[in-house]
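User: Can you help me understand a structure? I only have the sequence.
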Amino acid sequence: MSISVSTPAQRYTPLAMALHWLLALAIIGAFGVGLYMVDQPFSLGRLKLYNWHKWAGVSILALSALRLLWRLTHAAPAAPAGPLWQQRAGHLVHGLMYALFFALPLAGWAYSSAAGFPIVWFGLLPLPDFVPVDKALAETLKLTHRWLAYGLAALVLAHVAAALKHQLIDRDGLLLRMWPARR
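Assistant: Let's start by predicting it. Here is the structure, written out as tokens:
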């Protein structure tokens, strides 16, 4: 069986693809930096990593808002036919990922606010604190941010595994809908 997804109606738009892959790279990068930075000794380098992580989080939040707006105004191409449970699982995973695209950076921002460390996006735009400085709240938000990150990582792995299953086993062209067309 050959894989064929050639008509524009079967593919996402170039902007949707760009937002998808940019957000994917940003999330993977922020997760990697987050895992690395927490085990580093206190230093100027660690503080830089925390700032980069915060900048990535705010950027992910902005990209997620743009992506959601685009998605709400542009229909997704029809998915290949498959078992109803797979369709429902796909919708559930996508819905949970979208929720975490917002909840995770907002929890990080709230944690930073509660810990008394303001966020200045790319060193240029100071963002408002939206919770008061509170050590106990900061500890709760820190754990919340961490577990949301692990949850998003698990969902991303499930998403990638499903895409690979569709590409390599089902050979139904699902992955190609989000891959730029070859000219």
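Now, to help you interpret it: Helices lie at 14-37, 44-73, 84-115, 135-170. The two ends are 22 Å apart (CA to CA). Let me know which part you'd like to focus on.
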